[in-house]
């Protein structure tokens, strides 16, 4: 059962927008049941988030007994759901059977109808990615001009900034047009969340000395160059895997298979290196003493590469803002996901994606969206 | 101009094979001019290699004045070449114009003809990958049953071993049959070089919770399962990017685009982490003192992840053994590439690939090698 919050806002309406163009207050719907730990981490994260953002409001969605502790918090609306999508639930279960899941109810908060604006500006869930994408896509539909939503995340780079990478696994078979759409959406995301105007876009490719990429990549390069020439985005050119961490471009665009492999490979390497460092420093009494001395320095290092700081992947291309937290996120990490959703909503990411896609479609004769270009795949 | 070495051996002949089945002596042809540094690193590496392997012989190929210092070394034959393929030379230049390059002459040493066995059992070059693959493929041709050669390299894993990954960029568009061939060749490589019988093969895929891979991956999974059931290889199942560093399977098979991105992304992350560690330890006088204390531990760590220790990628599927050293390799790294070539030749990798591919073709009705399966790409 759903209790609709009393006041409702839409990011598409100008109501609630301040003179500077940012939206205030910002209302975020939270799937409190999602992730490996559920309310035990989402609720503390929400509390910390509210303390940090005086103009934020939260719509907390979950089983009644689970969200009750937050009943008397300020700037909070509770919305009950009777079911929970587990991390192992197949997409079909989330989509067809659990129609009153906290995930689904949370997403429905950002859905605007002809009669009624959306109840929240963005939604955050740590639930399973496949279910989240499927339910969000089903409920919200895609923005006009977007064939397929994409998942975008940030990775730290050597410039002490972040590189935004998309797609991360929503689309395994992409055409050149899809990659162009990812570039446009990624640009809007970085402009909104990181406040960077005209961010640069790199197209992920492989060492030119080996081979210059396949047909889809070449066509995508042409589309991106054309968009660049028309001032629709800032195309840097081809980049390679190592450029993600060099910070060569603000955004790196690739198909979902490649993006997912790059992300998981990075996670694996980071974990291996962390394990090795730990093993070396705990090897014997002397190395343990060295560890004591080196601890403050190692902690500084750890902080810089702490993956919790860049938690919160954006599901882009939907008619509503949905952010995905890592399933294993702790409260610190989940709060970061809330922050990203807040920044995106505050800086009107939805309008930006909508406007930039519309401008691109007007300007570029992109042809049939699922044209033959989609057949030869972006390997 | 080429001076053919006086004695010639073939890995396909039983001559020179010891009772234990290993080949001895082993003769390696070295492109002394390849890489960023040429003879200044290749020659010292060759000298160290010879000292370590009393049954090894080297065929040193290069400009006469460059290789002259090695003229009086024991177990060495000098072969002159009049040209050098630069790191920037396009494939066409290496292939069509520089017909007496050190790279080409070195590769030609491992080519056997109907009349004459090959002059060397394996060849090592640090020259540019595209040129090396093209020239090797042109001169040596592929093994029967192999459509496309692949590049295989090793990455360190959390089990303190190595994971062999292929393809690394030779093939951007792969069919399921190609992935099966990579699996067979990778198994032969690991058995020969790492001495591991019946190594496990993982098929690189993306998180099942998102989507279960595309058509090519699914078909490849079926082919690999069938090969496993017939005892042709040891298929572990699907793996994800992080499994490369976990060491979940001995071999990880993927198309060249994905493999190249995974490799380059890993290199980029490792470099960023090394930079961050260095920055933190050199930040001020206190951190520098901590660095002094931690240095021996950090050096142990560095040694474990030292990429020079796993230098030497194998070009598999050719009728001759060719190993590629990183272009920027130092003498220590180049010697490791020589070691890998030596191990491969000594344990008759060429015969193993040949035999295993033949057995697979006999046993599995693989159908049209470039069938429709090759159209929908392994993204």
Automatic annotation (TrEMBL), chains A, B:
| Catalytic EC class | transferase
The chemistry this enzyme catalyses reads:
a fatty acyl-[ACP] + phosphate = an acyl phosphate + holo-[ACP]
Say which species the protein is native to.
Aquabacterium olei
Q: Cite the NCBIfam families for this sequence.
A: plsX
Q: What is this protein called?
A: Phosphate acyltransferase
Q: Which GO terms describe its molecular function?
A: phosphate:acyl-[acyl carrier protein] acyltransferase activity
Pathway this chain belongs to? Lipid metabolism; phospholipid metabolism
Per the record, the GO terms for biological process are:
fatty acid biosynthetic process; phospholipid biosynthetic process
The EC number(s) given in the record are: 2.3.1.274
Alphabetic keyword roster: Acyltransferase, Cytoplasm, Lipid biosynthesis, Lipid metabolism, Phospholipid biosynthesis, Phospholipid metabolism, Transferase
Listed Pfam families:
FA_synthesis
Where is this chain's protein located in or outside the cell? Cytoplasm
The source's superkingdom equals Bacteria
Question: Is Ligase given among the entry's keywords?
Answer: no
| Any Gene Ontology CC annotation | cytoplasm
């Amino acid at each position: 059962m759903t209790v609709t919050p009393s006041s409702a806002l839409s990011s598409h309406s100008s109501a609630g927008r301040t003179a500077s163009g940012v939206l205030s207050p910002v209302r975020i719907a939270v799937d409190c049941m999602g992730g490996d730990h559920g309310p035990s981490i989402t609720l503390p994260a929400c509390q910390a988030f509210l303390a940090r953002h005086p103009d934020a409001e939260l719509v907390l969605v979950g089983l009644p007994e689970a969200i009750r502790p937050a009943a008397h918090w300020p700037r909070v609306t509770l919305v009950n759901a009777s079911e929970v999508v587990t991390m192992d639930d197949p997409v079909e279960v989330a989509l067809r059977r659990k129609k009153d899941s906290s995930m689904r109810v949370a997403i429905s908060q950002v859905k605007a109808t002809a009669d009624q604006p959306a109840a929240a500006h963005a939604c955050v869930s740590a639930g399973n990615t496949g279910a989240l994408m499927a339910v969000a896509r089903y409920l919200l539909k895609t923005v006009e001009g977007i064939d397929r939503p994409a998942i975008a995340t940030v990775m730290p780079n050597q410039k002490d900034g972040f590189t935004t990478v998309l797609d991360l696994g929503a689309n395994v078979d992409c055409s050149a047009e899809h990659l162009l759409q990812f570039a446009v959406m990624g640009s809007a995301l970085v402009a909104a969340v990181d406040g960077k105007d005209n961010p640069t876009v790199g197209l992920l490719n492989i060492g030119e000395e080996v081979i210059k990429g396949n047909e889809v990549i070449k066509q995508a390069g042409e589309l991106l160059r054309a968009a660049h020439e028309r001032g629709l985005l800032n195309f840097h050119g081809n980049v390679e895997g190592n450029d993600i961490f060099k910070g060569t471009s603000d955004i790196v665009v690739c198909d979902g298979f490649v993006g997912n492999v790059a992300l998981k490979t990075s996670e694996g390497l980071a974990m291996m290196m962390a394990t090795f460092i730990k093993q070396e420093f705990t090897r014997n009494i002397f190395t343990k003493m060295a560890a004591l001395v080196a601890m403050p320095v190692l902690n500084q290092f750890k902080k810089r590469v702490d993956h919790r700081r860049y938690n919160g992947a954006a599901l882009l291309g939907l008619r509503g803002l949905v952010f995905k937290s890592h399933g294993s996120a702790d409260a610190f990490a989940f709060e970061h996901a809330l922050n990203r959703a807040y920044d995106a909503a505050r800086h009107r990411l939805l309008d930006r994606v909508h406007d930039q896609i519309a401008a691109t479609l007007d300007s570029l004769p992109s042809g049939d969206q699922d044209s033959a270009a989609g057949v030869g795949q972006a390997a």
